[in-house]
């Protein structure tokens, strides 16, 4: 290593058990944290943003001790951070590593953008067909409104 350059490393304690959400687009890091409701957590949490990434250029990471994601949380993360990877940690080791992926259809996690849609006026669960995943494009199963980008409102 060149003497003029100093390499600085930040050591972050590992979690014994829990979930690490890695490869989150830096701009979506705190949106993912809100999905995970980290403000209610009583266990260790680490949120890193604007970290170097060969894949994304800049990435975010979230570690939550003693926590597993629900299917709805994973679907929400896939909508806003489609490059994210979920790492399940047990006894300090990664036991499962999964890239988030949107299913063909999602329910309950997105609000329809159409104010006239029955889901905004009656007590029924929303459901959407995913017509494209990158970027996500959704079509309401009730009114058939197509939504993408800022039209997508998470519940």
What topology does this entry show?
Layout: E1 18-25, H1 29-35, E2 45-53, E3 57-65, H2 71-80, E4 85-90, E5 93-99, E6 105-107, E7 110-111, E8 127-133, E9 136-140, E10 146-148, E11 153-154
Antiparallel strand pairs: 1-3, 1-4, 2-3, 4-5, 6-8, 7-11, 8-9, 9-10
Can you characterise this structure?
With 155 residues, the protein is mainly beta. Helix content is 11%, strand content 39%. The protein contains two helices and eleven strands. Strands 2-3-1-4-5 form a five-stranded antiparallel beta sheet, with helices on one face. The protein is elongated, with a radius of gyration of 18 Å.
What is the average of the pLDDT values?
89
Helical fraction: 10-25%
For the largest sheet, list the strands in their spatial order: 2-3-1-4-5
The Rg value, from CA coordinates, equals 18 Å
Name the structural class.
Answer: mainly beta
What is the chain-wise order of helices and strands?
A: EHEEHEEEEEEEE
Short structural summary:
This protein is mainly beta.
């Amino acid at each position: 290593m060149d003497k003029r350059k100093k390499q600085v490393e930040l050591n972050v304690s590992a979690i014994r058990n829990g979930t690490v959400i890695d490869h989150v687009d830096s701009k979506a890091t705190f949106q993912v944290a809100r999905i995970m409701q980290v403000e209610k957590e009583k266990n260790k949490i680490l949120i890193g943003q604007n970290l170097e990434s060969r894949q994304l250029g800049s990435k975010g990471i979230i570690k939550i001790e003693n926590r597993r994601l629900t299917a709805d949380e994973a679907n929400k993360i896939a909508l806003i951070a489609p490059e994210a990877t979920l790492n399940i940690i047990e006894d300090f080791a990664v036991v499962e590593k999964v890239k988030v992926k949107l299913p063909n259809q999602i329910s309950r996690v997105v609000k329809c953008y159409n104010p006239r849609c029955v889901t905004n006026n009656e007590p029924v669960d929303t459901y959407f067909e995913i017509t494209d995943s990158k970027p996500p494009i959704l079509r309401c199963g009730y009114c058939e409104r197509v939504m993408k980008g800022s039209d997508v409102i998470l519940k």
